[in-house]
What we know:
heterodimer; A: 139 residues; Rossmann fold; 5-stranded parallel β-sheet; 5 strands; 18% strand; B: 132 residues; 19% strand
Amino acid sequence: MTARTSTPPKAALVVASDLEALTGFQSALTSNGYVAIIARDLPTALLAITQHYFDVAIVSSRLGEGGDGWALAGVLHLVFPRAFIAVLTPGEPDVVTFQSAINNGVSEIYEQSRRPAEIVGAITDGSSGGTASSGQTVQ
Amino acid sequence: MPHKPSLLIVDDEVSVARTLQMVFEQEGYKVAAAFSCAEALHLLNNGGRYDAIITDLNMEQPDIGLDVARAAGGLSPRPVVVICTGYASSDNSRKALELRVDYLANKPVDLKELVPALNRMIAHRRDLRVWK
């Protein structure tokens, strides 16, 4: 008799102040087999981190009054070092943006004007360097 | 007592490399220095293993420090990689992100920022190995 094992679905955290973006990412992630948990501000995101394991996190760099997305990405990297962490930026990334990404353990940057389905596709298809599908190995 | 973390410093400015070496030795690191990308690659390709590597970006050629980061990324265990540069651009910092460089510091280096950051990253990497 063999024991049957089932792999739990992958979980993703999306943090953005824009409700439309959150809904779009939730829909795209769910379509790709993820359990998606959304948060509109830093306190809600931090609470989610204490309650769930995340394979993927998608965080807006600007959370408005809800907090600093870069700092949150850094926390996510520390708590979930094998997670794929994407940050959404308002425009084309410049050198300061790339430096913030590197120093906060971010895996990839996406312009927030891109469609959520396109970004989720890039994350799950392995078309953007280190990806959620390949996993980040920290040795 | 945990062993001393090992660190390779790569910089073609000997004074910069030696200063960083002195600072990190005082912090309890075992430090080796290389004064070119070629010298660093020779060390890495001949069994040199380090907990962390701090490399300049522009040495024999512009952005050649990325070659050090690339070589470090192929090692197991992968060392923490820090690039220090006064010539960061969107292009080379994008490549550094793709190479999964752990930290990008501006020159002149702010040691009050770099030293605790490196200590934290090495401790974090060790914790991950313990729990693996």
